């Protein structure tokens, strides 16, 4: 039976604004690219190549594939929920309507925090990558600030100008980024398989979760893999602007997840053995560029730096676009200041929400790079951005179970797809999250990360109370909903 969006029976508390986002503006392929750009494969691999090879003992590929399974299950949960309610607030509204509006607000806040902190993570890469393209070997703090600020302003202008130009820009950058990354991954794999001097030979451990000799940690690998996947769900935040808004964004989410898994598994497996373990770890902060130089010299290192730069630029652009639409969706219910729900009649974009997102990214980038006393604390927030994604992925999976709970008891297939699998995927991510937080808290050096995560949650609760009692948001009066159509065979 083909899923069709049900008729909306709930009362809509948010009146339609005078101007709306541009409907039917982009297709499923462009939406898929937006989701992939949000996950930023080149940056994710650049930041994790050395660490993942170390903690998994070269079992990177199996760890990526293992985490891809629950991610695909949760992507299907997003697809099913989008069939019910195609709203750019996405999990904010789904969790609020299916489970509890207060939990829905916290979910929306975690989504905003995850995208803002995720965008800040790119500042460590963007300056050196851009300068490396032009042959510069190092970058000072002010050079990195200038580059990061300039790129953010440019991507903000594109985000405000419209979703169509955003999509075209993302497709163009993606074509170059992925071609470079995949080309180097294949070249690296050939070098390793042909036993090129200095490479790490492929053994049976490369195809095991515990790595060579069983010395790898699957849990540590899973934590890093979750960070690598974070952002694929960006396809649903532009659902109001996608053709066939109820069906295509969910399909795009599944395709984006699968393609990120394939690219990252290939790239990590192909590049991790190009140089010796000692050399890889010694150059962990610039692993991708270093490996590219080992494969083809300084010229090819610049090409890889270009791929990294494009990945950061694309991720910055999608962070502004996607975060602005989450804010726009929440502001429509006065869960955030109402002016943030305004849409420009000329550009059909949420200009105020976009400007706020861009300003926050720029301001926090400056804080991150300049304020010595605050930099370590902010680094902790950036490091747990993957955990923020994990939390709202879990809540979204549970929202799918809650909304479709009547179908779960209707037949065995729905019990599996809408019940057992989403609960299992949520439990898997929850297990990883708990293991990570316990290990982090036990280490005095990383313990501030736990407090940073708690601080983000506490700020969300305070903002929720302001929305409930200060702005008197009607969102908190929404009644719990569920799918009333029991599927029949």
Distance between the termini: 8 Å
SS element count, helices: 19
Shape: globular
Largest sheet: number of strands, sense, barrel closure: none
Structural class comes to: mainly alpha
Radius of gyration, Cα only, in angstroms?
A: 22 Å
Keyword list:
Amino acid/polyamine transporter I, 489 residues, disordered N terminus, mainly alpha
Overview of the structural elements:
The chain is mainly alpha-helical. It has one domain (28-477): Up-down Bundle (Amino acid/polyamine transporter I), CATH 1.20.1740.10. It is built from 19 helices and no strands. The model is unreliable at 1-16 (pLDDT under 50).
Short characterization:
With 489 residues, this protein is mainly α. The protein has helices at residues 28-39, 41-56, 60-84, 91-98, 101-121, 123-133, 141-161, 163-193, 218-229, 248-271, 277-282, 287-296, 298-331, 351-370, 372-383, 385-403, 405-408, 412-442, 447-470.
Secondary-structure topology with pairs:
Layout: H1 28-39, H2 41-56, H3 60-84, H4 91-98, H5 101-121, H6 123-133, H7 141-161, H8 163-193, H9 218-229, H10 248-271, H11 277-282, H12 287-296, H13 298-331, H14 351-370, H15 372-383, H16 385-403, H17 405-408, H18 412-442, H19 447-470
Helix pairs in contact: 1-8, 1-10, 1-13, 2-9, 2-10, 2-13, 3-9, 3-10, 3-16, 3-18, 4-5, 4-16, 5-13, 5-14, 5-15, 5-16, 5-19, 6-7, 6-13, 7-8, 7-13, 7-14, 8-10, 8-13, 9-16, 9-18, 12-13, 13-14, 14-15, 15-19, 16-18, 18-19
């Amino acid at each position: 039976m083909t899923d069709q969006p049900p008729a909306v029976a709930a009362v809509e508390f948010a009146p339609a604004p005078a101007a709306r986002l541009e409907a039917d503006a982009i297709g499923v392929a462009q939406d898929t690219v937006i989701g992939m750009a949000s996950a930023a494969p080149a940056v994710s691999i650049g930041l994790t190549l050395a660490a993942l090879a170390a903690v998994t003992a070269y079992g990177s590929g199996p760890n990526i594939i293992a985490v891809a399974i629950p991610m695909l299950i949760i992507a299907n949960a997003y697809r099913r929920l989008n069939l019910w309610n195609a709203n750019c607030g996405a999990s904010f509204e789904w969790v609020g309507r299916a489970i509890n509006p207060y939990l829905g607000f916290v979910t929306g806040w975690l989504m905003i925090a995850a995208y803002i902190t995720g965008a800040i993570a790119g500042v460590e890469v963007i300056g050196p990558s851009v300068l490396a393209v032009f042959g510069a070997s190092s970058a000072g703090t002010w050079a990195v600030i200038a580059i990061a600020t300039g790129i953010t302003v440019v991507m903000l202008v594109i985000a405000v100008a419209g979703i169509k130009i955003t999509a075209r820009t993302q497709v163009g950058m993606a074509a170059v980024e992925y071609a470079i990354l995949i080309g180097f991954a294949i070249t690296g794999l050939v070098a390793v398989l042909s036993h090129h001097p200095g490479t790490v030979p492929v053994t049976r451990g490369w195809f095991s979760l515990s790595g060579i000799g069983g010395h790898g940690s699957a849990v540590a690998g899973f934590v890093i893999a979750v960070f690598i996947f974070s952002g694929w769900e960006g396809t649903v935040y532009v659902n109001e602007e996608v053709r066939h808004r109820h069906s295509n964004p969910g399909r795009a989410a599944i395709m984006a997840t699968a393609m990120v898994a394939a690219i990252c598994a290939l790239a990590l497996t192909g590049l991790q053995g190009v140089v010796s373990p000692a050399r890889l770890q010694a150059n962990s902060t610039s692993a991708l560029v270093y490996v590219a130089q080992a494969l083809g010299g300084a010229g090819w290192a610049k090409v890889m730096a270009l791929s990294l730069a494009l990945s950061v630029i694309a991720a910055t652009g999608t962070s502004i676009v996607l975060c602005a639409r989450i804010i726009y969706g929440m502001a429509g219910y006065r869960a955030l200041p109402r002016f943030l729900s305004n849409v420009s009649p000329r550009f059909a974009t949420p200009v105020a929400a976009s400007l706020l997102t861009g300003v926050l990214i720029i301001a926090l980038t400056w804080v991150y790079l300049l304020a010595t006393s605050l930099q370590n604390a902010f680094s902790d927030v950036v490091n747990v951005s993957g955990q923020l994604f994990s939390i709202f992925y879990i809540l979204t999976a549970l929202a799918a179970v809650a909304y479709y709970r009547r179908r779960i008891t209707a037949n065995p297939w729905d019990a599996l797809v809408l019940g057992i699998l989403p609960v299992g995927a949520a439990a898997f991510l929850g297990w990883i999250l708990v293991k990570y937080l316990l290990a982090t808290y036990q280490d005095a050096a990383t313990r501030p990360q736990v407090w940073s995560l708690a601080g983000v949650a506490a700020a969300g609760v305070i903002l929720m109370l302001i929305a409930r009692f200060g702005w008197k948001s009607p969102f908190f009066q929404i009644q719990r909903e569920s799918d009333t159509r029991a599927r029949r065979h």
